[in-house]
Amino acid sequence: MALLEDNTILLRALEPEDLDALYAWENDSALWRYGATLTPYSKFALREYIIHATQDLFQTHQLRLMIEEKATGLAIGTIDLYDFDPMNLRAGIGILLDAGSRMQGFGSQALLLMKEYAFRFLLLNQLYAYVPQSNTPSYKLFRKSGYKESGLLRSWIKTENGFIDAYFMQLIHE
Fold this sequence. Notes:
alpha+beta; Aminopeptidase
């Protein structure tokens, strides 16, 4: 079996057919507080992103892969490496699952596949994530996947109700 797949899911490059799913996810304002999005994306902007995405981690310092459920062939989410630091051999990691695909084990599987890719192929030393303290499902997902809480970042994320704290979580290659 290939490095970025298991019996249930496949992590793959973006395809033009992913436009509608990306459009829905990127424009879900309820998710914006978990990422760095401040405004909606147009279909044109996302189409251009897909067309021009080089997927060269060493150039862009980021890599976005689609999470595809093999049984249906449907894209059910995305997983990202960001702020790739080739000098210190680390990268941030983020994951988004479509609402209908949550709590089914897909997130754990995707994090495991990305861990294998990051540690065995890219030879990274660590992955890290910022998890809002209020996002209990995400916190549990990262803990279940072996990430350790390394600190609490006070007033880290601005929300409509003020600032909230975020956990800094790390997975060190051992």
